[in-house]
Amino acid sequence: MPRGSEKARRHGRPRANTDPTANGESTARGGTSSLEDILRRRGVDEAWHALEEMQRLGQTSDKFAVSRILMKTVGDGRVKVSSSKIYRGISLVERFIEMQPADVDAVLFNALLDTCCRLKDLDRLESTARRMRELNVQASPVTLGILVKAYGQAGDLQMVLKVWEDMHIQREQANAVTYGCMIDACVKCGSLAKSVEIFEGMRVTGKHRNTILYTTLIKGYGLEKDLEKAIELFREMPKEGVPYNTITYNSIIDACVKCGALSQAEEILKELSGPDCDLEPDLITYSTLLKGYCHIGDLERALRVAEVIKARGLRCDELVYNTLGDGCVKANDVCAGVGLFEEMIANGLRPSAITHSILVRLYERAGYKDNASEAVALLYQHHGLELPVGERRGARRMKDRNTFETHREDTTDYTTTCELPTHIPMQQYCNPGMGVQPGAFSPVAAGGMWAHMGQTSPMPMCSMGMSSPTMAMSPPAQMMRGPMFFPNPSEGWAAPPLEGWQQPPQAWAHMQWAPLGA
Predict the structure, then answer these.
(1) 447 touches 318 (CB < 8 A)
(2) SS3 of 472, please?
(3) N- or C-end of the chain: fewer Cβ atoms within 10 A?
(4) Mean pLDDT over residues 383-410, rounded?
């Protein structure tokens, strides 16, 4: 078992709670209703169906149960729920309010407001808040937290400040969660100064000692690229008796990355990974550092971080692969980029539109200025993948998956048809003594190929094998005309006929290519 997993087992850590509804408010009360019984035994869909039937028959229902069903439908945000299902629930709750206005309370309205906030539906949220005032339902600190959070994620600083000022009674009763929502809203709206002002006001009363508050401000300083203040706040936490959590470490590492201080980010990661720390890095921790290396074009270190992710038993997601692919674009390493795409597919991940755009840029950097999209289309076709909708409409119709039209870079304009290799074992190019994995280039083999042809490789590249990056030579540009000349974990490019080795590289593009060893 990886050490991180063992630490997680020994030291259960709570997930940082930024949900404004988790502010001490409870729907608990004695007994259970028939709706709650249906919810517990048969799930939310049946509970909504039962509520709908009760309303059709004109029967009253229990406000606590209705609140619970709505909150259960939305969940904690980790699982995506269809918006149609959520809106159906909202409509039924609104119907409950119209049918039983005397029974509603702040708990029910806050559940409804929070749902609108999660949907980013400000119009519905504002109409709910108006209805709450019309029924003279007293707003709570939770209501304040939800409203500033909603306007904060919409980037409306004016409304954030107005709500904060108008609800001064709720502000005086608020705890750290509500203050955390306000500080986060100001950070999202680009008003770090207001966030600091609120935090310093809490410091005066001794209410500032909270992990969420410190972490949110560290994020703010990171966005402002004020690393000195972010580090100062980070180091202040243990002195104030405020514990770190993994999100705190991720935030300070992200601040270091945004400021280009990757060596400092590494040191903090070592601290987090050390035996004296009860926490452990997660996928976000590593992907943040990986993003930093890709941003500066240091693909070798980014690939090392990717290997650490796997070694710790974590699963690389689409974001990690897309970040690495973008790093390949910056490093101009098309071979590693396509190899990572192959690995992504092999791991059962489906490429997104972002993945496609990265591959197009990758091929453009490789010299496919005018037909990068067609090259990527062939790659997708080879793996039986559908192109993104927009690209599918705009892609040129290709007569045969094994033909590829290309133009030379000189002034002569002509079309070449090449047989694209799809089953070429890279082991035939690998030197077993070098320990090169399938899918990686062998510098010895590649160098030997060019030396035999009396040529030198035009450009060194870093390519990726199954377990580690391997420095290698790329094929000449003429050899890279077809997109399938790039290797994947079990394949590679083709060789010309034996007599072709004696021809100058300028003639390679006109040869018929066949799988190596055919």
Answers:
(1) no
(2) strand
(3) N
(4) 52
